[in-house]
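Re: [ENG-882] Designed sequences occasionally contain unexpected residues at chain ends

Forwarding the minimal case from QA. Structure tokens:
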């Protein structure tokens, strides 16, 4: 997702991918995208708190 500049758009893409994988029964990929979303948002929030 390096080419996607905004956090909100990256979140939307990850949530869409999560839904697609869920419908396909690919639960490991669902978990992977949720973990990535949480980790990236946590990192962004921590960076904001340091300002």
């Amino acid at each position: 997702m390096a080419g996607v500049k905004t956090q909100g758009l990256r979140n939307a893409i990850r949530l869409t991918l999560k839904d697609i994988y869920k419908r396909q029964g690919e639960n490991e990929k669902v978990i992977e995208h949720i973990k990535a979303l949480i980790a990236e948002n946590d990192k962004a929030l921590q960076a904001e708190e340091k300002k």
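QA comment: On inspection the terminal residues look reasonable. The two ends are 24 Å apart (CA to CA). Proposing we downgrade this to a documentation issue.
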